[in-house]
Each structure stands twice: as structure tokens, then as C-alpha cells.
Amino acid sequence: MRVGLIGSGNMARAIARGWSDPVLCTDSGSGRAEALVDELGGDVADSNVALAEEADLVVLCHKPAQLEAVAAEIAGRAKAVASVLGATPIAALQAAYPDTPVFRLMPNTPVEVRRGIVCMAVGPGVERDLEHKVDALFARLGQVVRIDEKLLDVATGVMGVGPAYAALVVEAQVDAAVRLGLPAAQAAELASETLAGTAALLAARDYDTLAVRREVTSPGGSTARGLAALEAGGLRSAFQDAIDAVLGGARR
Ligand SMILES: NC(=O)c1ccc[n+]([C@@H]2O[C@H](COP(=O)([O-])OP(=O)(O)OC[C@H]3O[C@@H](n4cnc5c(N)ncnc54)[C@H](OP(=O)(O)O)[C@@H]3O)[C@@H](O)[C@H]2O)c1
Fold first, then answer.
1. How far is 2 from 17, CA to CA, in rounded Å?
2. Disulfide: which of 18, 152, 191, 216 matches 111 by Cβ 3.0-4.6 Å?
3. What own/partner pairs with CB < 8 Å and gap ≥ 24 does 169-174 have?
4. Which residue range is the domain that position 207 belongs to?
5. How far is the CA of 60 from the centre of ligand 1 (A)?
């Protein structure tokens, strides 16, 4: 299946690097499409129209605000459309691309290293064969998770923004450790690999967060003191506020 990426920014680059195939892509003049082709091979299409005519699947990797403008160019030409646009429902994709199979996807940036999550909701009337092909294509980037479209924005508040949260948690731990003398690079490696290892352990424990926490937390011990300090610092309510902020922004 020939895939074309409209937009060559952060998300398109992460997806293309994950696939590591020669790309077919466009941008709006920044030169980022050329840079992606320099890195991975392939072609910058002469226009969005040329891309849509060549591709079997057009992946929309521009910003949500550009939905109508891009659709005005390529609707009727794109054979199938997969959108990674945040907060853009299937109904909006169908309105922009009538009579075209549409997929609503929400990937996160670890797709670049094939450890991503790609949440997927499929538009009505999409043929099974195409659905399987799109599923298999994105499964090369990590885990494809089918999700009720009504919950896709909430899922985004966990997995779409999650890499930024995880990076901030590592950064905060590094700052704390540096203050007490650990070299920054070493602290970053320790914190990052602990996150990765804990993710694997959580998967092995059926994502039972309490079990994993209890295994580290002796009564009255150092981890218990650390966790109490994080709770007193408002960690849980900060995450509540964060997801509200993410979803509030999405609705605007
Ligand atoms: N970043 C993430 O972690 C993430 C996660 C999930 C979903 N998303 C979604 O992915 C989409 C892109 O986000 P991003 O972070 O990659 O943004 P970005 O870095 O700003 O990239 C947007 C790309 O779209 C291109 N573009 C804009 N108008 C265009 C047009 N008319 N024709 C062709 N290309 C056009 C831009 O071209 P120029 O390079 O010329 O400016 C740029 O390459 C958004 O809809 C976002 O909701 C992002």
C-alpha cells in the first residue's frame, strides 16, 4: 500500500521514522518534507493533489485548523484517509472527505522507535480488507488499540500527551538528583530506564499499579516516605488538572 503523508512535522517524522520506508510527503513550504526525504529516501510530492493521486492511503499529519483547506484540494482524489489530527472527530473527517473511507488515529511519539500506542477508531462503511491493511500498517509502529471514538480525546489525555509528561517526570528526578551530586546524564539514564523497566513490569502484573508499588514499599520505609511526599506535593490532583486542561483545550 503506497502511503502519503500530508505534513512533515513532528508527528509525520516520528511515524515515517518508525516505518523506516521511503516516504511520499508534502509540507507547506518549510522544507521539512525535503529533510524527511533526505533522511529516509522517497519523494516530496509536487503538491497535495499529486500526493493524493499517487497514494492508496493519505495520512493527514497537518494541524486540525488546516482540515478544510487541505480537503478542498484533495477530497475526491484521496482513495482513503487516515487522520492523526487531535480533537477532530470522524464526523468532521467524513464531512471534509465525503464518500471516502476514513480512519481516526491518535499516535504518540514513541512510534518513532516502534514502541508507540496508536489509538484507532474506524469510520462507518470501511471495507474489512482496507481496515486490516491500515491496522497492520500502524501495528508496525507499536500497539494499535481500538477505542470507542467517544473516548478518544480522553485517551489522548493519557497517551498522546504522555511522552511529554514522562519526559517531565524524568527531568524533575534528574534535577532533584543533581542537587544531591549525581551527574545529570547518569541520573537521566537511571530515571529513564526505571520508567521503561517499570512499564514492562506493569505489563507483567496485568497493569496492577498497586501491586507494583507495594513490592517496593516497605511499611515505614524510604519509598513510603517518598510517595507520601509526592502525594503531599499534589501529584494526583496535578494529573487531574492536567487532563482537564488537555480536554478543555481540545474542545476550544
Ligand atoms: N506531536 C505529537 O505528539 C502529536 C501526537 C498525536 C497527534 N498529533 C497531531 O499531529 C498533527 C501534526 O502535529 P505536529 O506536532 O507534527 O505539527 P507540526 O510539527 O507543526 O507539523 C505540521 C505539518 O503540517 C504541514 N502543513 C501545514 N499545512 C499544510 C498544507 N496545506 N499542506 C501540506 N502540509 C501542510 C506543516 O508544513 P511546514 O513544515 O511547511 O510548516 C508541517 O510540516 C496535529 O494535527 C496534531 O494534533 C501530534
1. 16
2. 18
3. 169/195, 170/195
4. 162-251
5. 8
Q: What is the pLDDT of residues 10-38, one digit of tens each?
A: 999 999 999 999 999 999 999 999 999 99
Residues 83-114: tens digit of each pLDDT: 999 989 999 999 999 999 999 999 999 999 99
Q: Compute the distance from residue 8 Cα to the ligand 1 centre, in Å.
A: 7
Q: How far is CA 115 from the centre of its chain?
A: 10
Same domain, 188 and 119: no
Ligand 1 site-directed mutation target among 58, 59, 63, 88, most atoms within 8 Å of CB: 63
CB atoms within 10 A of CB 140: 16
Q: How many domains does the chain have?
A: 2
Task: Please list the residues that pair with 120 across neighbouring strands.
Answer: 105, 146
Check whether residue 132 and residue 173 sit in a common domain: no
User: Mean of the per-residue pLDDT values for the chain?
Assistant: 96
Which residue type, as a one-letter code, is found at position 157? G
